[in-house]
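Worked problem 6 (solution included).
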Amino acid sequence: MTKKNLTPEERARHKRERLSHIRRDWQLYVMLLFPVLLVVFFNYAAYPGMRLVFMDYKPARGYAGSEWVGLEMFRKVFSEKEFQKSLITSIFFNLADLAITFPMPVILALMLNELRYARFKKVSQTILYLPHFLSWPIIGSLAYIMFKPTTGLVNMALMNLGIIQKGIPFLTDKWHWAVTYLLVGVWQTMGWGTIIYLAAITGINGELYEASMIDGANRWQRMWHITLPGIRPTIVTLLIMNIGKVMGSNFERLTSFGNSQVRDYYYQLAVYIYQKGLANSQFSKATAVGVFQSLVGLLLVLLADRIAKKLGEDGLL
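Solution. The predicted structure is:
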């Protein structure tokens, strides 16, 4: 029965039920109010400021005194070599990050699911989750201590074992820096990412495993034919959401690892936005790049969702 077809008595009863629920759980509603206000303030209250992309904004003049330039700011940004270079670098590293980082939580969740010693499984999960709670500046400091060319722990261990004769420039050579940057990202995210997949695995019907064991299926066959198909909708959903991040970049991560010797790889869109927007006070350019990132990310998500549906998956929408 729709809301329009309800009788006055039923509407009154539903209203009383809603009020009783609010009175019963008012503490939860109060606690929920704060994060909702934060989301509204930081995500929605900032929308009027997006008009900067159509203005040559000068802080001293404000919105009223700044010149309205239409799409001219986008043309200026797209014609800059620095933007083009940062865009290409961001796409390259984000695609590499997606290709390397995304499968690791899936593989790790499958491995943890096969562990039979419960205590070892719990300890392993805890150890793997911990890097997620470290900030990127702390991880960058640890990486600097571990990978310094001469006194870093990794290079010292390799030299003492006779594997190398001189230190490997993990953080000063471009290609070594790229590999280190990507692998540290895998280490930081893979443990936390397993939570969703392990939760999805617990939702698989246990009778399927029992039937397959009766039929003589080994662990690999059960993993391939039961576990993976069981979590495939979760994998597809998270993959679609991660595809939308291909245009983004993490400023904290970049500044924690970046240095002048690897500027060609370190200079990505997040750094470009910071230098143009805050360092050089070119707020309109920085806002234009941010809007461009968001729009392209949204289009990528919608496109990936459409492709997933054509392939028979549920998708997002």
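Discussion: Residues 243 and 250 are 15 Å apart (CA to CA).
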